[in-house]
Amino acid sequence: MSLSRVPGDENLYVGGIFTLRRKSTLEKTGITHIVSVLKYDFKDFEDWEKYDHLNIEVDDVEDENLLGEFENTGKWIEEGLKNGKDGKKGGVLVHCAMGKSRSVTIIVAYLLRQYPYHTVSSALALVRESRPMAEPNNGFMAQLELYKEMGCPRDIDGHPKYQRWLYQREVDLALAAGMAPERVRFEDEELQDETEVSGREVELRCRKCRQSLATTPYFVKHLPNLPKTKSLPTTEPISSLTDSFPMPPLHTACTHHFLHPLSWMRPALEQGLLDSRLECPNLKCHAQIGRYAWQGMKCSCGIWVCPAFSLQRGRVDEIVKRGENNQGQGPDGVNVASGGRKGTALGIRLPPGMRGKGNL
């Protein structure tokens, strides 16, 4: 199967590299633009000057970064389809070596960009109607899912989720070498995605001195709600640096709050250690409130988070700042203002002798 037309109204094709030697087929299908998604020297192909050509030099490996190319290729394909030769619409061929992984990834990314109603699954299913062998590798599939989650932005490089994803790659390389990363990306010093800071907001405070430590936008959502029809646990670690999390097993209340790296952690994290303690940033307190481990940490619910920046629930209080009528209740229905004890006032820690006597 050398050349396959993507179903739809556009003259868009996907194929392998041997398609380029079928000059009559390229002419018959009206190809005017070619996107090559591989490392190759194309000087040996005849009549190459007839085509507008874009070359993305990547390998078909899971850790290759194709996500950063999606806007470039998407815009180029869009313009190629509109502007052919002699005032006619163009035809675009996207190819890699086999027309199976890299080229299909670029096609699916284009469909997501042009047609917002598509999901990654539906776009891939569309391509498979004419090219059943289409199968991006797992790394590219994850990048497509992130691209869709980001909203297929025109400025990919500046998007917070993309920057976080790039940093995760840096961390992975450092951990593979048995080292802490050379730089730390503190989330509260970075531009935040507006979709992440709406709705219910909870604040964590040091239980000893009441120092504010983190709010909801900086929590790692390692325990999304599990549908009743799903009960299989995940065996993969969850990254604290991205927002794409596998579904966890059913669980009881966790004993950890996992956070993204925050600037008050700088004195601890810039020591270059793989793991150590986290202390309250209040200079008059310095209570140990948690730990960090670049190589990951297992929560009491059984989920691995990697890297892990953890605050112990027993050493912090939770305050509901917005949402759920500000009743101060956490995910387990208890008063989070007092660290999980029912019947206390929101945001007020009562002296031991007055607990249970109502509000002040």
Automatic annotation (TrEMBL):
Keyword Hydrolase in annotation: yes
Tyrosine specific protein phosphatases domain sequence ranges: 71-132
First-tier enzyme category under EC: hydrolase
Highest taxon above the source species: Eukaryota
Keywords linked to the UniProt accession: Hydrolase, Protein phosphatase
InterPro entries linked to this entry: Dual-sp_phosphatase_cat-dom (IPR000340), DUSP12 (IPR016278), Prot-tyrosine_phosphatase-like (IPR029021), Tyr_Pase_dom (IPR000387), TYR_PHOSPHATASE_DUAL_dom (IPR020422)
EC number: 3.1.3.48
A GO CC term attached to the entry: nucleus
Residue numbers spanned by region Disordered: 323-360
Any one Gene Ontology molecular-function term assigned to this protein's record: protein tyrosine/serine/threonine phosphatase activity
Domain Tyrosine-protein phosphatase: 4-153
Positions annotated as active site in the UniProt record: C96 (phosphocysteine intermediate)
Keyword Hydrolase carried by entry: yes
Recorded family membership: Belongs to the protein-tyrosine phosphatase family. Non-receptor class dual specificity subfamily.
Protein name per the record: protein-tyrosine-phosphatase
Organism encoding this protein: Hyaloscypha bicolor E
